Amino acid sequence: MCEAKLCHNIDVQTVATTLALAEQHHCEQLKDACLGFIVSPGVLPAVMKTDGYKHLVPSCQLVLQEILDKIAAVA
């Protein structure tokens, strides 16, 4: 129930932190929602400016690869 609620409250400022936590706690639905939000047109540059993203880079390398894979699939 919490995972579903969090999926509806994703925004630029919280998505990277939420994605890291979703990965850490194996919340696939939430992880997919975060990845989908991040790859939406024009969103990634804003996300990359957040502190959450700065934490995501060194701590979740595999998630960064998933972001790139999703962007490549959309393009």
From TrEMBL:
Database matches in PANTHER family: BTB/POZ AND MATH DOMAIN-CONTAINING PROTEIN 1, OS07G0655300 PROTEIN
GO biological process terms on file: protein ubiquitination
Source organism of the structure: Eleusine coracana subsp. coracana
Superkingdom, taxonomy of origin: Eukaryota
InterPro entries in alphabetical order: BACK_BPM_SPOP, BPM1-6
One Pfam family cited in the UniProt record for this chain: BACK_BPM_SPOP
UniProt-recorded name of the protein: BPM/SPOP BACK domain-containing protein
Domain named BPM/SPOP BACK: residues: 14-68
Gene from which the chain derives: ga18984
